[in-house]
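Possible regression after last week's pipeline update?

I re-ran a chain I had predicted before the update to compare outputs. Posting the input and the new output here so someone can diff against the archived version. Not blocking, just want to make sure nothing changed silently.
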Amino acid sequence: MSTRAIYTFCDSRTEVHVYKHHDGYPYCKFDGGEAGGLVWINDAKKSAWHLPRFEADEFAASFVAAHKSVGGGVRLIGDQKPWEYASDCAYWYKVACVDGDLHVTVLSLCGLEMNRANSPLWRVRWMNYSQRNAPERRWRDA
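New output (post-update):
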């Protein structure tokens, strides 16, 4: 079964959501290399503007270009409510530029419930990951 994930790229003007159907776990090292959401985000830096310049839509396009080799697998989510598109995702990555450095918040989605106001209520664990202080990872139960 695939590990699905949503990637949200944020700047001061906009948020762009991308769905990736497989390998959405945060990080895995194996004999042949590395994989996972943090690696996929890092791969997108190769064709994006050099930091500290960061535009959410441009970085999202770089992310899709880095991972789109055949039909399916990676796609833009046009709605600003990504949980309505892919409620079966295991992870949600929120990516932004903070003080000239790429900052990633990883949410591990344990399940989605809708409250009475019909807005999302996530049970999450989260991790902040910064290129500057990698591989420091701080987990906290929500």
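Follow-up from reviewer: compared with the archived run. The CA atoms of residues 48 and 58 lie 7 Å apart. Marking as no regression found.
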